[in-house]
User: Fold these one by one.
Assistant:
Number 1:
Amino acid sequence: MIDHPNSADSCELLQIADKASPQAEQFRIFRFRTIDSTSEYARTNSDALDDWDLILAEEQTKGRGRHGRKWFSPPEDNIYISLILKTLAPRERLKNLSQVASISIADTISELGLRPAIKWPNDILLSNKKISGILCETFSSPQKKDCAVLGIGMNVNMSESSLSALEIPATSLSIALGKPIDKNSVLKLLIPKLRRDLIQLLNLPFESFLSRYSSYCHFLGGRFLVSGDDGIKREYSALRINSDGSLAVRTESGEKNIYA
Ligand code: BTN
């Protein structure tokens, strides 16, 4: 029996074994039918949760995205998860957490036979439409421990009609594959990859991911829209991903690096 914070509908242990590292590992998953936001729950209960605990919901009523946007989270068998991390990579690498998670997600989608792309820094696209997004929040817990919450949303079985209500072009795995997808089997592919990649980031610099990350950045060599600090979007030539994960672009006045 596992003690679990507040009111998770159920807590289970997910036993996973990755082909690359066949030792079985166990993760606690706190599963909710409906919650405001899995990331909010992880943050509020950070002291009671353990490193690598995963919060999962079937539906979120206040799912949040990057830049204060909402993340539409209907009960349509999509993935809404937040992973709490208490053993953190060195400070200068924390900004790479979501870039690294985007590689794990892209690898998972590739394993399903699709060809995902990463739009710098961490949107995952299929055929130029968003399929998954990551929100990484770092903070000090009430007990003053540094924590990160990595929130991941993935459109698994979202229908065309639900997606058409969104502001940006988006798609789902079931649309791309033409059949309903078992969300749990996607999670079983994703979680070991996340664990493997996040452990790599604890031990090695982002440079160790550079070729994998860049291989998903199909926009390199083309034009790329970047929002400036003034909120205005400008179009640049995207040159390369630098070893620290920043994006090198060519502007009218020369080359510059853009940081997420
Ligand atoms: C983005 O804007 O692209 C990031 C979206 C992140 C959404 C996920 S869904 C699970 C977790 N809980 C939230 O409230 N947000 C993240």
Note: The radius of gyration is 18 Å.
Number 2:
Amino acid sequence: MTRADGPRSRRSCLAVPGSSPRFLEKAQGLPVDQVFLDLEDACAPLAKEGARHAIVKALNEGDWTGKTRVVRVNDWTTPWTYRDVITVVEGAGASLDCLMLPKVRDAHQVRALDLLVTQVERSAGLPVGRIGIEAQIEDAQGLVNVDEIATASPRMETIVFGPADFMASINMKSLVVGEQPPGYPADAYHYVLMRILMAARAAGLQAIDGPYLQIRNVDGFREVARRSAALGFDGKWVLHPGQIDAANEVYSPTQEDYDRAELILDAYAYVTSERGGARGAAMLGDEMIDEASRKMALVIAGKGRAAGL
Ligand code: GLV
Ligand code: MG
């Protein structure tokens, strides 16, 4: 979904179990770009009904200023999805930015969610189409269909990699999410990350990396985050307050890169102007800059400005 004020910042996306009033409260004070209040795997089956109402209350009464507010519903193969959507959107639709749909396998599943949300928006008198969708890719079928998933609805905002479910579904020989499986000499995640990134970018969406489960190992988190950040991912899930600063830092440009990007933009604006000789390319120090350099610099500068550098 193209928003008038540009894409939302999602460097750090905090998972908050919807069944925990304590975490729903605590999350409001943490410096994350996004929260997602979870009705899926962080909520036990018997706790889901109560969690729906706790989430509605927290969205309506909490202070989420500065954060993108997302609720993760259950996937369409469960008996819970439609009630998750109806309860949350009817009860707190005006205080909600996106729904996250897990284990998405094809475009129909996104369209079904779009239709249901549209119905609830209409019946509740909410503006139609404002609530976005985040789709999690968590198995081989979802990955194979990722292009059609990315373009399935104008509500689509992000494609999210779900490494825990994904690795289980393809039988990868790794028990530690994010760590390389023993025996493979290269980066076993590269293909999946790149595939998701290409689908997301081709559709004009954001690409978000999933969780790192060893929550006390912040260096491990940082290393895994750096891999997807280097490719161009926009952010990563955080499961614990200890991971937040690392995510915000890794998915922001460094001050040095940001300053350089602004310099390239200024220099390019000058050389292409009449005063600067209306040239198409010029030297900036040892580097030649042209229109492609401007585009690359604009990406870094945009992220740096959003991060307040
Ligand atoms: C997240 O949902 C995951 O499965 O990694
Ligand atoms: Mg999952």
Note: Residues 215 and 240 are 6 Å apart (CA to CA).
